[in-house]
Amino acid sequence: MRSKIANSSQDSDIEQVESSLRELAERALRSQSAIMAACGSDSRQREVAIFNQAIESQHQDGSWGSDDYLSMKPCFTAQTIDMIWHLENRQQLDEMPNMPTLMITDRIQRAVSWLRSEQRSDGGWGEDIWDTCQVLLAFSLTGLTTDDPNVSLGLSHLRSNIEENWPDRTSYWFGPGYYGSAMEAFNRFKDQYYANIALEQVCHYFDEDGGYFRLVSDDPQHAPPEWHTACVISGLRSFGSVAPHREKALRSAAWLAQRQTEEGSWNPGHEEITAYCTSRAIAALASNADTRFNQHARRGTEWFIKRCATNQSRLSTKLMAAAAIARTHSDGIVVTLPLSFVMEVADLLNQFPLQISSLHTETQIASAEVRALESQLKTAQSSDSSREALMLQSKERIGQLEASCASALEQEKQLRQMLASYALKLTPNQLAIVGVVISIISILIGLIPSLFLKH
What we know:
The chain has helices at 8-39, 44-56, 73-88, 106-118, 129-141, 149-163, 176-188, 192-202, 225-237, 246-258, 271-285, 294-309, 315-328, 339-379, 385-421, 434-451; strands spanning 206-207, 212-213, 426-427, 430-431. By secondary structure, the chain is mainly α. The model is unreliable at 1-7, 39-43, 93-97, 415-436 and 447-455 (pLDDT under 50).
């Protein structure tokens, strides 16, 4: 109907825009094929979905975690920052010197701002000193140093706990896991003195016969030894290539690997305790520097993925699943592709809104002509039923085009915001976050038919 109310030049403009959109659709299909070829089987889409759900669960205030457990949100916010860092720097070896910092985006900025606001007057965060360690570790990944007042106050709080012989001993989670996370935090901020004190203290918890770290007494009111041992392993690894007590670390890792259940988890029982233990075990056993236990870590991640597939898992479980994926299954989300493909995707993102804008302009011209035709009909001496029918059909067509353009422009805006929200790199030889790109391509393909559909 558009061709009956516009001149031939305008018809040509519309056809040219629609032809460009069809070409973009074909290119989008080719890009999608390239992505899927790089990613492999469809099963990896589950990992992308879990990761995206975790990222998108961020609250408006910048935090992550369930509002039902406010005291745990600092811990989950910090661990989500850590998760994004591991995905962004998946090639980085487990050496402390020259650690790359996180690419700061709006999501990360809001998370850091929220964590700053949640620091207590004593310098701590969350439920206990372990949560405080996690926040300090997350701050270090964003590039903050001991010159930062929040970091300085947090470290002072951690030091006072060591000097006072850990007054928080009544906590369910107290034990060698506290010392392990303290070592990690001190090493991250290059405080070797207190890192060595925590190291000396934690050795008293090592079971020489069993080869793992536990409380002196088997008190059921405290966290399982799997959790504590995993935290200590991470703390020992934080010393880098000169890690002390390498034999203890190796024996503990072997013990932890043996404790894994057939289904892939650690310490089966209460859902959350099992998830916490499994999450820490994966973090301890997944290593770029020492790959001998990586298979156990990957099995643990598969357990998390299966748990999330039931759609009945808690938000905390989904966040821990995403963290596990970032450490062991990052190849399912991050893919290395050639520069030409990265340029192709970037060009698609640029060309799509330009073509939509052109179609929007032509639609506005057509709308003006419809209004002019309507005015002529109103002033005509006699009713022309055929012209009225033409006008109504044309107005309907223009309305559909305008709605499609508005929807497409809004979708494109949201997609760009989503892409910018992920703290992942888009470098000449690396296309990070395949999930976002797949979403972009899919929405592009879904929008194209509605934009050049003719009546």
